[in-house]
Design a protein that fits this description.
Distance between the termini: 90 Å
CATH class: Mainly Alpha
Structural class: mainly alpha
CATH topology: de novo design (two linked rop proteins)
Number of domains: 1
Strand content: under 5%
CATH architecture: Up-down Bundle
Order of helices and strands: HHHHHHH
Amino acid sequence: MSGMIIFIVIILLVPVLLVLFVISIYNALVRLRNQVDNAWSQIDVQLKRRHDLIPNLVETAKGYMKHERGTFEAITQARSQAMGAKTVAESSKAEGALGEALSKFMLVVENYPDLKANQNFLAVQEELSSTENKIAFARQSYNDQVLAFNNKIQMFPSNIIAGMFSFGKRDFFEIEVEAEREVPKVSF
């Protein structure tokens, strides 16, 4: 009789433990997905700040750089594309192009010593530089969260639960412009 009770308890306990196991993995996946979404929103905040600073930088430079219309148009177009990006992959590509346009702009600025000495330009340039650093930090944090999430949905046994509840792999925020991968050259 007591053997039968133990058998019934085990039969009832196994499904309960299995359900608790599934709930635990599901909750971990939801937590990781939310951390990825939060990390992306941090990047998005910094990218918006960057997008807002660029017109100020361009406007300050226009008075000094009257013959650089193509440079201004390239930045404006790259900014518009970056602001219109909808996915992580689109943002990566568009932000890479914007970074390249800004780099070319900064090279052209070198030819205008009066502009480089302008206090408004220097202030906006400093804000933009600070924002670029924040973007780099947020991108690293986002990619760390994506790595943790992607590992969880691809590793056994959580991959089974991830498949059952349609948790999909997330994209990393990667540098799309090859020039940004190069180490900057410093000369004195």
